[in-house]
Design brief:
single chain, alpha+beta, OB fold (Dihydrolipoamide Acetyltransferase, E2P), 5 helices, 5 strands, disordered C terminus
């Protein structure tokens, strides 16, 4: 039986799923992509608050519950390094949502990650070919992931 594992992913947030409701905590679904794939990551309030500099309570004072706050757009088009959990559900049931445990947009941390793993990072947004199943690659390449 496979346990959940963690992997680091360098990707850019290209879209936010606005149909996802949030009430007493953030549950932000963001679509991310790198040079090979796109998929959906789920960011909860602790991580989102770090980027928008506001808490759930502060947003509830100025927005109706479930309304999409414009502050969430602050993460759009940001390249970030994510520590993502790959669960049994992702592998066995092909769940396409991955929970983010940590995230950073700090340039020096991202640069260290790129150098450490000898990555060639493209700034082109049109380098994606067909969207493949990320879960299959996770299963095939589990040994390539390292902690954030």
């Amino acid at each position: 039986m496979m346990k959940a594992c963690l992997g680091s992913v360098l990707a850019t947030i290209c879209e936010i799923e606005t149909g996802v409701e949030w009430f007493f905590r953030f549950k932000l679904h963001v679509i991310v992509m790198d040079d090979t794939e796109s998929t959906t990551f789920v960011l909860f309030d602790r991580i989102v608050s770090n980027f928008i500099r506001r808490s759930v309570e502060e947003l509830l004072e100025t927005h109706s519950q479930g309304d999409y706050p414009a502050e969430f757009d602050m993460v759009l088009d940001k390249q970030m390094l994510f520590k993502v959990e790959f669960s049994r559900g992702n592998v066995n049931f092909k769940w396409r949502y991955y929970t983010v445990k940590k995230a950073t947009a700090e340039d020096d941390i991202i640069e260290q990650f790129i150098r450490k793993h000898n990555l060639k990072v493209s700034s082109e947004s049109d380098v994606l070919g067909d969207i493949n199943d990320l879960t299959d690659k996770v299963v095939e390449n589990q040994s390539h992931f390292s902690g954030l």
